[in-house]
Amino acid sequence: MASPYGITNAPKLTIEAVQTVVPYKVTDQRRSCRVLATDPIASGIFRRCLHVVLYYKNVSEEDSGWIFAGWAKESLGKAISEQPMLSGRLWHGKDGDGELEIVSNDSGVRLIETQVAVTLSEFLELKEKEEEEEAQLVFWNDIDEHDPQLSPLFYVQVTNFQCGGYSIGISCNILLADLLVKEKFLNSWANIHSNILSSNNELKKPLCYLHNLKRDGSSPPSITSSTPRKDCLKTLHFKVTAENANLDGETCKSLALHCVEETESRLGSKMDSEFYLFVKENSKNIIEIEKYSKHKHVKPQLSIKTQVTCAGWDEYLGAKEVAFREGNKPINVSYWIGSVLDGLVMAMPPLSQATLGVNILVAIPNENEL
Question: Most exposed residue of 38, 228, 302, 355, measured as fewest CB within 10 angstroms of its CB?
Answer without folding.
Answer: 38
